[in-house]
Write a structure and sequence with these properties.
156 residues, alpha+beta, 4 strands, 19% strand, elongated
Length: 156
Amino acid sequence: MEEIDRRIVALLASDGRMSFTDLARETGLSVSAVHQRVRRLEKRGVVRGYAAIIDHDAIGLPLTAFISIKPIDPAAPDDAPERLAHLTAIEACHSVAGDESYILKVRVASPVALEELLQQIRAAANVSTRTTVVLSTPYEHRAPDVTRAGESAGAD
């Protein structure tokens, strides 16, 4: 990836609503050149979309937790993500190395709601769980350091 594209990606990652005019000013390109580069980045799948960052406290989901899951029967099919997809309290599902198979990031209204969700997860996916409740979040949604991305992998 060219350095100018990395700069555009970094700018969009920090402010997905940045106008083409502002991107042009920050990169030293013309507005039409920036527009073409952004469209090309979108077509390549580098920029996959634009999203609002939600204040979960304001919408009544103040409790964040990470739930590690492990199949009760190790011989069972590895289909937990599909079995849990209908549970909208699960914000993210990450396949991980280690004792557990997946780590789920969840957002719920209360400890009681978390307990209910844990029961739903266990029943739907036939898994054991280990839960870590988030006390505070000093930072989240940080923009990636695209200036260093791909250095060790040799990607460009």
